[in-house]
Automatic annotation (TrEMBL):
<comment type="subunit">
    <text>Homohexamer.</text>
</comment>
<feature type="binding site">
    <location>
        <position position="68"/>
    </location>
    <ligand>
        <name>a divalent metal cation</name>
    </ligand>
</feature>
<dbReference type="GO" id="GO:0046872">
    <property type="term" value="F:metal ion binding"/>
</dbReference>
<feature type="binding site">
    <location>
        <position position="69"/>
    </location>
    <ligand>
        <name>a divalent metal cation</name>
    </ligand>
</feature>
<feature type="binding site">
    <location>
        <position position="341"/>
    </location>
    <ligand>
        <name>a divalent metal cation</name>
    </ligand>
</feature>
<dbReference type="Pfam" id="PF01784">
    <property type="entry name" value="DUF34_NIF3"/>
</dbReference>
<keyword id="KW-0479">Metal-binding</keyword>
<feature type="binding site">
    <location>
        <position position="337"/>
    </location>
    <ligand>
        <name>a divalent metal cation</name>
    </ligand>
</feature>
<dbReference type="InterPro" id="IPR015867">
    <property type="entry name" value="N-reg_PII/ATP_PRibTrfase_C"/>
</dbReference>
<feature type="binding site">
    <location>
        <position position="107"/>
    </location>
    <ligand>
        <name>a divalent metal cation</name>
    </ligand>
</feature>
<dbReference type="GO" id="GO:0005737">
    <property type="term" value="C:cytoplasm"/>
</dbReference>
<dbReference type="InterPro" id="IPR002678">
    <property type="entry name" value="DUF34/NIF3"/>
</dbReference>
<dbReference type="InterPro" id="IPR036069">
    <property type="entry name" value="DUF34/NIF3_sf"/>
</dbReference>
<comment type="similarity">
    <text>Belongs to the GTP cyclohydrolase I type 2/NIF3 family.</text>
</comment>
<protein>
    <recommendedName>
        <fullName>GTP cyclohydrolase 1 type 2 homolog</fullName>
    </recommendedName>
</protein>
<dbReference type="InterPro" id="IPR017221">
    <property type="entry name" value="DUF34/NIF3_bac"/>
</dbReference>
Amino acid sequence: MEAPLHLRDVIELLERRYPPSTAEAWDAVGLVTGELGAPVQRVLFAVDPTEEVVAEAAAAGADLLVTHHPLLLRPVSSVAATTAKGRVVHTLISEGIALYVAHTNADIAAGGVNDALADALELVETRPLVPAPGRDLDVLVVYVPEDDAESLTEVLASAGAGAVGDYTGCAWSVTGTGEFTPRPGATPAIGAVGTHERLAERRLEMVVPPGLRDRVTAALRQAHPYEEPAFSFLATHPPSSSVGSGRLGRLEEPVTFGEFAARVAAALPATAHGIRASGDSSAIVETIAVSGGSGDAYLDAAHRSGADVYVTADLRHHRASDARAEEAAPFLIDAAHWATEWPWLPMAARALDTDCDGRVETIVSTRVTDPWTLRLGTADTGGNL
């Protein structure tokens, strides 16, 4: 019988897909409540950590609640049960339910919120609307006697060099001939003062995050057999990765804007907010930009991308009005914030199922936690009063 997974194990799997380091600086992601050593057998995924959702997790016997939105986005000085958030904290602890948040790090991730929204709308050939900049890496180049190359590689890897994605100890090397002449005052590990030496050396290359340069250098100097090891750091600027804000894709077949708006309404969970659209319903559209959640910030990016339509949530009046006035501006579809992010839940649940080899049960909450509950006085067009 397989040993149960513990909270620390599940968090490690979640953070491989949604690294906390990629969250916005203002965000509050990660573990909110829970003991790392506690066993996890059932996980509930939801958008919001509301009292109703926590009650749902308790009723389902969930050990872990994973939400998209943070519970404590802003600093607090009390979690007394006199407030809604305080009651959530008390209930989570009393019911033994851990709470984990993946917010902006899940927005930009491959397989995250924006990919899920694009998939729900059946977009193909998708890519980030605003690609995340690639992480700068130094390349360490060091020359070491052939007999010491393997041990030095291990030391450098332990210091953080050679980490690429899910792999560690990554290195490239080639063997050649090293030459040097120790001068008076030197205490060479190999050779003698005044004598020109030649020996087999290996040129070793490993990537190093700039923040680890000092630690790797110290490890290199301590482990290298030479009194004065020859090494250098070469700065690199990798291309943008497959992660980033929003997504841009196209439809398999062009449709009218009215037909596409109806597709959005059918694909997303129903809410009182519904779907608002701005554009010519008979115009043909094919290229689609999306951004789950509040998307005002990416209106300009959607315009620059050449998208025919931009699908998002929480568009403000003046931003939308100004954006639509621009030449060749995309048509707009504004859905409920909650609805544009919900499609990530089943995608995230399936991913955790795969990563855990089915050793935990995942549940997706269908509870609508959009704050708007009633809509009145709607009209099909924006005509005069």
